[in-house]
Design a protein that fits this description.
2 copies of one chain form a homodimer. By secondary structure, chain A is α/β, with parallel strands linked by helices. Chain A has 2 domains: 264 residues, TIM Barrel, CATH 3.20.20; 35 residues, no CATH class. Helix content of chain A is 42%, strand content 13%. Chain A has 13 helices and 8 strands. Chain A has an 8-stranded parallel β-barrel, surrounded by 6 helices. In chain A, helix 3 links the parallel strand 2 and strand 3. The longest helix of chain A has 17 residues. At the A-B interface, helix 7, helix 8, helix 9, helix 10 and helix 11 of A face helix 7, helix 8, helix 9, helix 10 and helix 11 of B. Chains A, B: InterPro entries: 2-IPM_HCS-like, Aldolase_TIM, PYR_CT. Chains A, B: It holds the Pfam family HMGL-like. Chains A, B: Keywords: Manganese. Chains A, B: It comes from Lachnospira intestinalis. Chains A, B: This is Aldolase catalytic domain-containing protein.
């Protein structure tokens, strides 16, 4: 495996994607106030971040709009209330889950939208539906990514087939997603290499979205970067479901491109993230998330353990080992 | 660089060193009660950990015994009060800082001691004094390690010379120590490779002691392990100065040798570490430690920032950049 770039130089192909509202929204049901989102937008622009993800394009048929904040749905007007026409270098992205979005209704032509990129999230068994969505979004004029979730539980032969199909679609970037935070750096490098080999053959980019169950989200992100992955997801203070994500402040401290600036991020952390944490929202590394990560399991049991304020780690561990 | 071992197998040469009392003692001035230390000892034995470090052999001429808990000094009788004659497979270690220990007085012959290993901590400019201490301790019958601190600020040419001298001494293990938590995995692999090349030539082992300023302590530990480092330092809940260390619970979850058991560690966390944290002791990743790590600086300013309960990250960052 070849290393791409040196610590002292920088790779201009790297794109940082802020997912604070989207993955962080899984912590607070997307109830961020406009002031917070506007400050985040301003901070991302000032920090030189390339993309900011505003949330999901979730189906209003499937999800009750009264039960979630507006960033679960990302109506065009709600984004425009924050960014106007977005006359900045920051691009705007939203995520759409295969099977949980009315994309033919809710995704309008790019010419009428401030959104730049649609990120399509799929499991390995819904690749054909994902390819249909990619095609639709590309025809509408958007940049697209495909995020194959829970890859740590996918059969390697199926993954190979999926990557080959996806690389031949209109998609721009294929994401390596460690949904369960279970992968070690050596596995990430091996997978990243696999993704890159297929993607580069068809002129596609590769991205990484890591979770912090084993305190490896940042390490896995920069290790993937080192072997050539170029779209790097991060969130402010690592805010995200369960153990959270790669911290934006760690990532920008690592990247050497002078276009990035840590200062606006630090100001956002002290002025917005610390008060948000003090409202009682909880995310980040903890023993229960480590255990689901180590066992390559969905974090839902750990999230319930956290909500119940349990501390009996050993009993929880035994319950995870019982998989019959 | 060759990978040693596969994720599915295990390397019998690996030794896990618990430093909870020694590095964690820097958080609470070594005031652990005997109940805590005894429970830690029992947990380490049950978990299959190879070494437990009880603290420092600090000079009572330099340090006032009234200002520190007893594990700053590790009197023979104090250790025996916990372990008796230590009829277990767990070996006992203490650390001795070059220039801050009266080793000729305080380190007694191994035949009269339950201590198995003396870890000698040095900076690059006190290598000759360290070699004298290695010689003394080896003559006394102990296993020895040399821990070269703050290696991220050492000139590479001096490090090469130091490694060559040390590898020819009686020392058993040479430690790569990331005192400032500033090193990235790719730097750790490169340094580990350098240490290993010299060490293996003279039949020595290499160890790693990582700090968690950039959430990389665990990642750097397992990456060093992957290229052949075999002595791995960790602490319960990552307890240690400032940002803390590699978490024992993460490390044992990673290692595949069936001799290790996570269960006693989890019980120790819930029964001992959680109550300890609730007394108000603070350690672990935080923005101020990340910043000193990114700037390759001693964490003392971040420790002061924490003690003063400051939250003005951006101002703190600017103060770090001012190095004149």
């Amino acid at each position: 495996m070849e290393q791409k770039g040196e610590l002292i130089s920088y790779r201009p192909d790297i794109k940082v994607v802020d997912c604070t509202i989207r993955d962080g929204g899984l912590v607070n049901n997307f109830y961020f106030d406009d002031e917070f989102v506007r400050n985040l937008y301003t901070a991302n622009v000032a920090a030189g971040v390339e993309y900011m993800e505003f949330g999901y394009k979730a189906s209003k048929e499937i999800f009750d709009v009264k039960e979630f904040g507006k960033w679960k749905f990302c109506d065009e007007q709600d984004i425009r209330d924050i960014v106007g026409d977005n006359n900045t270098d920051l691009k705007i992205s939203v995520m759409a889950d295969v099977g949980r979005t009315d994309y033919k209704k809710d995704i309008i032509p790019k010419t009428d939208s401030v959104i730049d990129m649609i990120r399509i999230a799929t499991y390995i068994n819904t690749i054909p539906a994902a390819i249909e969505m990619i095609h639709y979004c590309a025809e509408m004029g958007y940049e697209t990514t495909i995020n194959i979730m829970a890859v740590s539980t996918a059969a390697e032969s199926e993954l190979d087939l999926a990557l080959d199909l996806l690389a031949q679609s209109e998609v721009g970037t294929i994401y390596l997603v460690d949904s369960y935070g279970s992968l070690y750096p050596e596995q990430i490098r091996r997978l990243a290499d696999k993704y890159l080999k297929v993607a580069e053959k068809y002129g596609k980019k590769v991205g990484i979205h890591a979770h912090n169950n084993q305190q490896l989200a940042f390490a896995n992100t920069i290790e993937a970067c080192t072997v050539g992955v170029s779209y790097l997801d991060a969130t402010m203070s690592g805010m995200g479901r369960g153990a959270g994500n790669c911290n934006m402040e760690l990532l920008l401290g690592f990247l050497r491109n002078p276009k990035y600036s840590l200062n606006p991020v630090l100001k956002f952390l002290q002025n917005q993230m610390l008060p948000l944490k003090k409202t009682g929202l909880v995310w980040g590394c903890d023993v229960q998330y480590m255990l689901t990560g180590q066992q390559n399991q969905h974090p839902r049991t750990a999230i319930a353990f956290t909500a119940e304020q349990r501390e009996d780690y050993a009993a929880f561990y035994q319950s995870l080992l019982d998989r019959e």
